[in-house]
Amino acid sequence: MMPSAPKTTTTTMTPDVTLYTLALDHLAEGVLLLESSGRIVYANHQAAMLFGHPADALAGTTFSAPIRTTGPVEITIPRTDRRPVIAEMQVVPLQAETDTLSLVSLRDMTGRYEAEAQLRESEATYRAVIATANDGFWLTDATGQLLEVNDAYLRMTGFSRSELLGCRPDFVDADEDADAVRARMAEVLESGGAMFETRHRTRDGRIIEVEVSVSFAPSIADGRLFVFIRDITPRKRAEASILAAKTAAEQANHAKSEFLAAMSHDLRTPLNAIIGFAEMIQMHMFGPLGDEHYEGYIADIHASGELLISLVDDLLDLSKVEAGKFEIQEQVVVVPTVMALARQQTATMAAEADQTIVIDHADDLPSLRGDQRALVQVFYNLLTNAIKFNRPNGPIRFTAALADDGSLEVRVADEGIGMSPDEVTKALKPFEQIDSAHARKHKGTGLGLYLCVQIMRLFGGKLTVDSTPNVGTTVMLWFPPTRVGAPAAVEAEAGDTA
After folding, report:
1. Is residue 217 domain-resident?
2. Pseudo-torsion of CA 481, 485, 489, 491, nearest 10°?
3. Alpha helix (H) ranges present in 201-346?
4. Which among 318, 294, 151, 337 is positioned nearest to 229, based on CA atoms?
5. CA 34, 38, 40, 43 torsion: positive or negative?
6. Number of alpha helices (DSSP H) and beta strands (DSSP E) in the chain
């Protein structure tokens, strides 16, 4: 309130009045003495400070605020420095001999209003930060009871605010019960804060991995906990994937190291035999050529050469598969013919092991669209495995049949040592061989079954293994209906044995 321009001069103060004014000038509140018309008769030092004018300049001016109030009111006092002052005004009427005067007290409330404004701004900032945060937020009391929860946590878990307020952390914690939560709370209250990982339940029953950061503020009310919660489920999954990939890489590296060690031995053994027997023939150890010993040496040289070719072929085929250059040559394949060819290629091996390969298929078995060379390789690999691991004098059933859905199923079943589920998984990987005394008797790269799996994938089919330890193993090849054609001429009689 700006007083109007002075209309009269300031009244002369008596000595008694001077004493009173001296006391009033030392009050912390502003004091004005007004006539009924509103003219200022007296202004103390604090009032002059509030108006920003000297006290003698205020005297005689008109005070425009209402001077008849029933209680304290707040007014704004404009100033020349454009810094308005907010004051609480209280008016007390004084009856004089000739006029009714008003005693006006003015208490400066500007500082309180500025503090309240700052508090409101701070509160609004706090609310905005919590409301817009990407992380979940809880405000709890010292016992852990939820007093406030932000929208981010509600979105994270699917709960409503009413479902969470009043609860404690064990309501959502999937790893800690009420006792464990109380123990952790005690640690936080003692240390002043903590950061840890746990798991929370969502409303739909999912479990999410979370990182929790807690700070304790003992000076607020009876103690408050500020809890920030971050969903780290994607990070945990990524870490698990990286760890799994690292483990797989280490296993693959270990398998390849074992493979190279075994391959070094497998290559050197037939090479040493070839060189040794060739030198003995060259040196005529048993006289001129024609001695029966040389016939045996030549047979050993031939067998060693075939083993070397088999090892090298497996390596070359693996490199083609991994480079994506193993191509299927599309042609019409008569399955019984290929079955008979594969049995013929393994006949010597089966005879030496006293094994019997029994072929069984329908007379009207349809042809197959595919690559005969690749199919022969698959059948050969499966039969040689069956011969290696079958029981002595045990039969090997080699069957082919058309399924109800039009697909073709070929099975190789033995009655040998069998495998556990873990051993089956290992056998289907490259460079892997079952670690058993029986397996160590047989040479090989550990690539045969893996190559079969990859070739079947190129056929659009699949290979499955059903095995039981000490009972036997059945390997099933499944060819999709799209590769199965019309019935073909059968060149191998069903039920043939070798």
Report:
1. yes
2. -40
3. 233-282, 292-322, 335-345
4. 151
5. positive
6. 15, 18
Which residue matches tokens 């099975």?
411
Partners of 408 in the beta sheet?
402, 479
Return the CATH number at 273: 1.10.287.130
Tell me how many domains the chain contains.
4
β-bridge pairing 136-141 and 40-43: unpaired
> What are the phi and psi torsion angles at 404 (to 5°)?
-65, -30
In angstroms, rounded to a whole number, what is the distance separating the alpha carbons of residues 297 and 289? 11
Band of pLDDT at residue 487, cut at 50, 70 and 90: low
- How far apart, in whole angstroms, are the C-alpha atoms of residue 225 and residue 204? 27
H helix or E strand, kind and range, residue 366: strand 366-370
How many of the other CB atoms lie within 10 Å of CB of 104?
Answer: 24
What tokens does 149 get? 């929860």
User: CA-to-CA distance for 445 and 262, rounded, in angstroms?
Assistant: 8
Burial state string for 113-129 with b = 16 or more CB within 10 A and e = fewer than 16 = eeeeeeeeeeeeeeeee
Say whether both 255 and 290 belong to one domain.
yes
Same domain (yes/no): 366, 483: yes
CATH of the domain at 87: 3.30.450.20
Answer whether 447's CB lies under 8 Å from 315's CB: yes
Give pLDDT tens digits for 398-431.
Answer: 999 999 999 999 999 999 999 999 888 888 877 6
Burial category of 255 from C-beta neighbours within 10 Å (exposed 0-12, middle 13-18, buried 19 and up): middle
* Contact between residue 63 and residue 43 where contact means Cβ atoms under 8 Å apart: no
Radius of gyration of the chain (CA): 49
The reply to whether 363 and 459 lie within a common domain is: yes
Distance (Å, whole) CA 359 – CA 379: 12
Q: For the sheet containing 85-95, what is the strand order?
A: 40-43, 30-34, 100-108, 85-95, 73-77
Whether residue 496 lies inside any domain: the answer is: no
**How sure is the predictor about 330, in pLDDT bands with cuts at 50, 70 and 90?**
confident
Q: Domain residues for 143?
A: 133-231
